[in-house]
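Page 42, continued from yesterday. The earlier attempt failed because a stray header line got pasted into the input along with the sequence. Redoing it now with the clean sequence only.
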Amino acid sequence: MTALTPVHAPDLPGLIERAATKLSGAKSAAEVLEAREAAGLAYDVARRAARLKSAKSAHDDLIAAAHRAQADALEIEAAAKRRLADEYDAAQARGEVASARSDRGNQWTVSEGNGAASAVSLGLSRKSIHDARHLRDAETAEPGLVRRTLDAQLERGEEPTRSALRRAAEARLERSLDRLQRVQDSVRRLDETKTPPPTPEERARQVAVFGTPEDRAICGRIDEIVERIGEQPAPAEAVRRIPPASRHAMDTAPIRRAAAWLSEFSNLFEQEVQHGTDASE
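This time it went through. Structure tokens are written below.
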């Protein structure tokens, strides 16, 4: 059989739909792996179909349809890889998979209770985990990156590929690192030019002029009292408008004490301002 010999290809839309269904229903790491493998199979079938049609000079619409199927399969596969990265990191956090420095190596407990299995036996490698994390982090930093990358290839009439997604993810993470570096440089420059904290003598002078926070709060409360009183109608009008049902609750003794306090405060403050001394001394 030559490379151009027609073969009976599985139903491509069905393969893609099954991969998407497997991923959406995945509840364990093993099921995520199955979804990734199903999407990978759909991608391989679509790629073979596209290349056969291209070699046989098929109509552009047929090749474009095969490319779209490749893109759909890659999108599902990328989603499975991102989910796989999350599952793997969560397993590491729970201590079910060893870190790179652990003596256990790549051990991962499968959630169905099958015990610890090596990452290699589950179809994983350090590189695949590394790539999955890159893809996840890039998509998190720029949601929709995967689909936009695939659509751009389709728009240019190119064959969607895993390597294109990998390059897009790496480029996005590089931009994130560059931005982080710029932020760190800006913070460092601000630290270098930042005014040093005041000395104890300077703090004392600030308190002498501006007071403590509680001192300023006293001023604020007095301003608020005066403002609220200013919002009231004239006293005679206010008395007239007190509802009969509220008159029994109106105690004038606290009002007189408040009025006396305000009157005494006003007198002392005016004396202090006039003489420039503490009138209470």
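Notes: The beta strands are 107-109, 116-118.
Reminder to self: strip header lines before submitting.
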